[in-house]
């Protein structure tokens, strides 16, 4: 229901610019902004998952419109909601995973399902078109596969090996950071395989199946990306085949696109990461984990310290009696293993200076399983409910919450019937907002009457200079210039020496980059500070 409403909160530009924006340009032929990750000169993102998600939904609504089943299927609402609806349906993979895993890890099934369903991470992040969302779903499937043995871990289903290879490789191509999440489950699965199989031949057979399926999956992704980013056609392949076998192999290798390697090459450079923002190495532990999971993250840290203290104590004082400790990856020690599944990826991601909360959303599964055991979260249930209600409101409605309704409004305005035969020209200038996803304006690539200018967080002088420059070219009666700014910088525009008409106010909108001042919130001006303005430049100016 909330997905269809729809949610107005805008979490991060990547929820649009890593799938829907690109696919809307490719499949629906709309004017879009192609991000640097999808440029053919140095592609860093696979096109397979965008095609399988946003691409499929856009192809579906395009087909409905072409078949005259729905004459106006393509509009800003369907462009926004259809990919989100698919991700919302996919998010029930998490519920299924909890249903399968809770008995295996001695977690209370009902409490685990309630913790998952009530988390604002599930309600907000897992209904958005993030690659991190897909990463979390693949991580959940991997946990189900590695835990698919019998209750005592005495045997492992033979079908797990090929599927584990496919899931791991697909996750790696979606986001190479998936290996950080997959490593502990893979080691756990490998331990079960070695422990349960008496024949070395059977063990080797399992690993060979995994490797072969992983290689096959990689070939599929590389082939799809190579065809997409190099625009390789059948004619290109025919011309390549005219050479010798070695020439053919050399030319194919030269054209081959392996997006994860480009991703790693870019992100392992500290200078590149700094361009996207640098954070202290402890940000994931102290800020992002609490921001996403609240008290559950704190309880996991406390439990981790207690278990670590226990193991250290046993290692020092009891080792001589027991002739060595059992490893933490033994099934009977379910809780320590789940903590490893939670803290190892968190620690690995903390090695990089660029740390965003959404990087941790796959960890919700091991965390709710751990929290639902031994009644850890029961006494904090009121705090958990309040925390998730506030999180859902903040990130689902308030955060940059005016930008999507603003684009809906502008799309209706641009496509409204013109009073004259002359085409109208629109200039849309966005300042101090997140990047506006162009595809929501629903403008065909052949239409040249709409110009979008993204000023990002430009200073007062640059902003005023650009507005004055646009005003100086404002001579045609069919030209319309709109300036879109949050209420917190509304006063800046008044210093630019231009006048506006038809002021449209959208509420709510919270910009954390330009937060409202507390004195303004406590005064009668609070509503203006929490809104977004669409200002139309006065033509006589």
From TrEMBL:
User: What molecular function terms (GO) are annotated for this protein?
Assistant: alpha-1,2-mannosyltransferase activity
What is the first-listed, main subcellular location in coarse terms?
endoplasmic reticulum
Q: What EC number(s) would the UniProt record show?
A: 2.4.1.-
Task: Give the UniProt keywords, A-Z.
Answer: Endoplasmic reticulum, Glycosyltransferase, GPI-anchor biosynthesis, Membrane, Transferase, Transmembrane, Transmembrane helix
* A GO-annotated cellular component: endoplasmic reticulum membrane
Q: What's the superkingdom here?
A: Eukaryota
List the Pfam families.
Glyco_transf_22 (PF03901)
Its membrane topology is listed as:
Multi-pass membrane protein
Annotated pathway: Glycolipid biosynthesis; glycosylphosphatidylinositol-anchor biosynthesis
Where is the protein situated, by its record's location annotation? Endoplasmic reticulum membrane
**What biological-process terms (Gene Ontology) are attached?**
GPI anchor biosynthetic process
- EC main class here is transferase
The regions listed as transmembrane in this protein's record are 73-94, 109-126, 178-195, 207-229, 285-308, 385-410
Spell out the family assignment given in the record's similarity comment. Belongs to the glycosyltransferase 22 family. PIGZ subfamily.
Stated name of the protein: Mannosyltransferase
């Amino acid at each position: 229901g909330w997905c269809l409403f729809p949610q107005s909160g805008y979490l991060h530009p990547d929820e649009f610019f890593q799938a829907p924006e690109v696919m809307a340009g490719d499949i629906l032929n709309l004017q879009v902004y192609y991000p640097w990750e999808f440029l053919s000169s140095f592609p860093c993102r696979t096109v397979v998952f965008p095609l399988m998600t946003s691409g499929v939904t856009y192809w579906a609504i395009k087909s409905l419109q072409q078949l005259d089943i729905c004459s106006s299927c393509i509009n800003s609402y369907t462009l926004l909601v259809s990919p989100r609806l698919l991700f919302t349906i996919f998010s029930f993979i998490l519920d299924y995973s909890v249903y399968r895993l809770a008995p295996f890890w001695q977690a209370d099934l009902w409490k685990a399902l309630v913790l998952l369903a009530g988390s604002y991470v599930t309600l907000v992040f897992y209904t958005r078109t993030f690659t991190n969302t897909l990463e979390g779903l693949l991580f959940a499937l991997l946990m189900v596969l590695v835990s698919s043995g019998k209750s005592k871990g005495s045997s492992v289903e033979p079908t797990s090996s090929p599927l584990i290879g496919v899931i791991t490789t697909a996750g790696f191509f979606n986001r190479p950071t998936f290996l950080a999440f997959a490593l502990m489950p893979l080691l756990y699965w490998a331990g079960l395989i070695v422990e349960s199989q008496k024949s070395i031949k059977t063990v080797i057979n399992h690993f060979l199946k995994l490797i072969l399926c992983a290689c096959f999956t990689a070939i599929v992704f590389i082939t799809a990306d190579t065809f997409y980013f190099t625009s390789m056609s059948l004619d290109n392949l025919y011309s390549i085949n005219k050479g010798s076998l070695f020439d053919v192999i050399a030319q194919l290798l030269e054209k081959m696109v392996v997006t994860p390697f480009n991703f790693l090459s870019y992100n392992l450079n500290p200078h590149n990461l700094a361009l996207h923002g640098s954070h202290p190495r402890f940000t994931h532990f102290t800020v992002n984990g609490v921001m996403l999971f609240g008290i559950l993250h704190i309880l996991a840290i406390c439990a981790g310290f207690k278990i670590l203290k226990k193991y250290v104590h046993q290692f020092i004082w009891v080792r001589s009696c027991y002739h060595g400790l059992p490893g933490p990856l033994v099934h009977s020690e379910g809780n320590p293993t789940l903590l490893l599944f939670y803290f190892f990826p968190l620690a690995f991601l903390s090695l990089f200076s660029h740390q965003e909360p959404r990087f941790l959303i796959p960890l919700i599964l091991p965390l709710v399983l751990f929290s639902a055991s031994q009644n850890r979260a029961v006494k904090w249930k009121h705090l958990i409910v309040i925390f998730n209600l506030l999180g859902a409101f903040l990130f689902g409605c308030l955060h940059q919450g005016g930008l999507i309704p603003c684009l809906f409004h502008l799309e209706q305005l641009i496509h409204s019937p013109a009073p004259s035969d002359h085409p109208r020209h629109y200039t849309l200038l966005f300042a101090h907002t997140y990047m506006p996803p162009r595809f929501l304006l629903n403008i065909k690539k052949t239409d040249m009457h709409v110009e979008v200018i993204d000023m990002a967080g430009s200073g007062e002088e640059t902003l005023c200079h650009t507005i004055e420059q646009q005003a100086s070219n404002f001579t045609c009666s069919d030209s319309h210039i709109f300036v879109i700014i949050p209420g917190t910088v509304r006063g800046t525009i008044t210093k630019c020496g231009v006048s506006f008409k038809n002021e449209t106010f959208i509420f709510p909108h919270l910009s954390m980059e330009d937060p409202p001042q507390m004195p303004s919130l406590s005064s009668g001006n609070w509503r203006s500070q929490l809104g977004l303005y669409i200002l139309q430049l006065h033509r006589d100016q």
